Amino acid sequence: MSQRLSPYTPISEIKKMREGSRVAINLFAKIAEAGIPRMTKGIGTDYYIGFKLADGSCQFGVSITIFAPTVADLPRIHSVGDIICLHNVEVKVYKGESGESIFCSFNKRKSSYAFFDKEGSTGVIPYKISASFRATNYVSKYLDQLRSLSLEHYQPDANRQQDAIVSLLLLKELEEGKVCDILCQVVHVCRIPSGDGLILYVWDGTDTPPVTFKSNLNIEESTPTPMQTESSPLSSEILSSFPRIGTVLRVIAPNDFEHIFDVPGREQWIKFCNVTCELRSEIMIGVMNLDSKVFILSDEYQSVKHRERIYNERKASDLGQIPLTCSLQTSHVTVTDYETVPYSTLMESIHSEELLSSKCVVRVVASLPWRGEHLHSVNRSVRARLTLEDPTARLHAYIYEEDWVQFIGPDTGADDITRKMMKLLGIRNPPTGEKEMALRNPPWVKCCLRKFHRDENDKVGTMRFQIFGTRLIGDAVNDQAQGEGGAQVEVTEGVTADRPIIID
Q1: Which whole-number Å values give the CA distances from 503 to 220, 473, 500, in the listed order?
Q2: What's the CA gap between 366 and 421, in Å, rounded?
Q3: How many angstroms separate the CA atoms of 347 and 135, rounded?
Q4: SS3 of residue 145 by DSSP
């Protein structure tokens, strides 16, 4: 099959090719999405990188995969939106479960490429070419057209049978057990200490949904609720660089994706395909496998602009720090002495040096202790350690003796304390024994936090939070249970106060 240097075949014509077609073409297009280098499956003798291309002839795109014997031999683009010129690539059409798919195959011996800067600063001179590439007289014409091409309405994942773009979920739409595609910025990457993979920390400005807890509060002293999914927390320096609003989702990935370390900057929007949502330590995470894919997207995409608009509007709002699933109009569990003070997230409370006192909307996911008989008339300076959670972080907050009466109410007996704590912790039916714990869905509550350090010479290591200016309201958990159609809750004593609870 002879090579035809011109004219270049538009993607609209490529999309008309039928199943079984094998045609060699030349293609001039804009890079709408760029993959990261990966090793081929099986024996893994080659590396490859994929690109998704657009040329303005239709709203759909076409994929091209380039192979090389080493990672160093693969082409590296300056940025998404750059221009690629391909000569003598073979178009292949195959039929899958979702319809016909079309992609271009790059032959290491016959095909050639050239990459041009999207801004035009280099004119018609490519910044990267393969050894056998020969320029044509059409370069200047196509570069002018493609550099001015907008990708705003481009639909890379649509084909002839499916006109709708594959849905990219926001983090607020994730569900346990669901396999999905997400579009996020990567704020940090690290290796799992055991060497079994990577942890990607991704963010899109929204909050992952709150989860239902199954852990046993009766063993909170010996087996505390984990504060993070990792075996050890990230350094304060790294955590302080994370966004203060919105969930930073942990995504576990195989080492096959290690070249995501090479993606420049945190501003890049990256699409993660085939991510499974799981719960670990009762925190939502994502899990990738070898069939997952990663693509860096153009910032012109509608889906990118949509996420940026959501975050900018949230950041500008007076209530932007409140979890997206919380309605202050229906949250009647606590009140504070500082109702007019602006809200903060836990991430802001932890890492802001100026913010020593804050008001947050949180869920109390654990308490040590939690039963009335362990909290009533106890002679200790710290009455309880609460584990607080919002979409940005978890932390321990302590209720000291001087704040306890205000928090729980004066002259409150042990049974009433248990009822109030059940409401706070989202327990609808009490456990009947030491080893049993009912499912719980803690409500969103308001609380005031004061930050202090036990050792001024080690502020990070000795940081503590104290709950103050906050009180529980309402009769008991019955308020919420009856409103949700639940039966009236009757307190059953299952654990006796036969020894003091140790709170660190």
Answers
A1: 10, 25, 9
A2: 10
A3: 53
A4: helix
- Checking DSSP bridges between strand 269-280 and strand 179-191, what pairing results, if any? antiparallel
Contacts with 377 (C-beta within 8 Å, 6 or more apart), sequence order: none
pLDDT in tens, 152-186: 878 765 443 343 345 799 999 999 999 999 999 99
User: Residue 352 pLDDT > 80, yes or no?
Assistant: yes
pLDDT digits (tens, 9 = 90+) for 4-42: 445 889 999 988 888 777 889 999 999 999 999 999 876
8-state DSSP, 501:
P
113, 130 contact by CB (below 8 A)? yes
Residue with tokens 């939070």: 465
Residue type, 103: F
Contacts of 3 (CB under 8 A, 6+ apart): 24, 26, 87, 88, 110
Instruction: Give the C-alpha distances (Å, rounded to integers) separating 478 from 297, 329, 371.
Output: 50, 19, 17
Gap between the Cα atoms of 53 and 62, Å rounded:
5
Give the single-character DSSP code of 118. T
Q: Is-contact 393 365, C-beta < 8 A? A: no
- In which region does residue 20 sit, left (phi positive, over 0), alpha (psi from -120 to 50) or beta (all else)? left
- CA distances for 309 relative to 304, 315, 316, 453, 472, angstroms: 9, 10, 11, 38, 37
User: Which segments within 20-173 are labelled E, that is strand?
Assistant: 22-34, 38-39, 47-54, 62-68, 83-96, 99-105, 112-116, 128-129, 168-169
Which among 171, 207, 210, 284 has a CA at the least distance from the CA of 441?
A: 210
**Enclosing H/E stretch for 310:** helix 302-316
Query: CA 68, CA 26: separation in Å to the nearest integer?
Result: 20
Nearest to 424 by CA among 339, 343, 332: 332
User: ∠ CA(336), CA(337), CA(339), 5° rounding?
Assistant: 70
For 230, the token pair is: 């990792």
What residue ranges define each of the domains in the chain, with the CATH number in brackets? Answer: 11-147 (2.40.50.140), 168-316 (2.40.50.140), 334-483 (2.40.50.140)
What sign for the dihedral angle of Cα 131, 132, 137, 139?
negative
CA-wise closest residue to 86 among 64, 69, 101: 64
